[in-house]
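Thread: "does anyone have the structure for this chain?"

Original post by V.I.:
We have the sequence but no experimental structure in hand. Need at least a predicted one for the grant figures.
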Amino acid sequence: MFGKRQYIDRTFWVIFIILVGVSILALFSASSSLIRIATAQGHNPVYPIAAQILYLLLGVALAYGIQFLPSWIYRLFGYGLLGVGIIFLMLNAAHIGVTINGATRWIRIAGITIQSSEIAKIGLIIVAADLLTRIKDGQTEKRYFLWVLGLTAVTCVLIMFSNLSTAVLLGSVIILMFFLARVRWYWIAGIIFTAALVLVLGYFYVENVYVKPGKEMTGIMGRAVTWVSRIDNKVKENNTDNSAIRINDDNYQATLARVAVARGGQSPLGVLPGNSLERNYLPLAYADYIFAIIVEETGFIGAMLLCLLYLSILFRACLTSSRYNDYSAQLMVMGLGLMITMQALVSMAVAVGLGPVTGQPLPMVSKGGTSALITSIYFGIMMGVSREQNQIRAQQLITEHESQETIPDIEVE
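Reply from O.Q.:
Generated one for you, tokens below.
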């Protein structure tokens, strides 16, 4: 391991450490509600922040160790993670697990709460990359395409029962991986058309059968009413003058987030770190809406720098993939980079009022132990592939140099 340190991807590490630093600073600013809850329950008021910092430090250690593993081990563990993730999701679909805000998305093991979809997401991306790179001809293309499509459908449907936005996001990443793997375009178009048709028909069905009549929807699709209501609230909000918006239970968080963004927009640097007011009223300021607090405290400049930081992850993933000969590792790195970047952009868009409420955390920044650890694994795998690629290139250069030194001089008459 010690001889491999010289091949570490320092650029990836700089991005990663900056995100960890941003997370710690943002949590200190946005966790006032958590501190009040901890104090009311008789706990140490610093405990919520300290616990998240511990997860971040564990994530750094995890990423550091993972980067020294060969890429074939990532693919092997990917199948295990997908299997475990699907089992956890099936338990959640049966309402076995931890339920928060009406959604059963977590499994508690030995006192540790694990978000099932996070395990399934990374597993599916790794497995999809491995299967798609086994395509050699028309026959294998159909076989492995159907395998990936089937695993994606099962995983996304199970995730959808409790978290539609995560299912759509994961499905979008897999579709992009189909493009990168050069799967036939009309197969991809068929998937997009079918998925869009199902979502649109589902929306109108729930809207007209349950939402408008005011009926309650039960069963595993019980949260469909919440999804449709969020879309309706966003459409209504877009068609209403800001001065006429009234705060209610449905738009409370979204409205306060927009207030935070408006306060931050009064200056290019915002109200400066530590001076947020909306953190005291926004219930999930430390989670889904942490970007709104960042905008409030750092303004346009801070928001743009954070956007560029996430985009640099995707850029670095593209650069790493372009230099690597292992096609499976290339596709895996691109899938992981796309997931982090797309999730970040969706989370930021929701926080500033550009989309309906989705519940997507900001990777490595929002509070959440499972999310922090899994995102650290994302980074560890991408940095591991980059390190392996750097080592291979260095060895090739050494071999070429030694071969040139052994060529005898030839006298030309």
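V.I.: this helps a lot. The two ends are 52 Å apart (CA to CA).
O.Q.: and The chain is about 70% helix and 5% strand.
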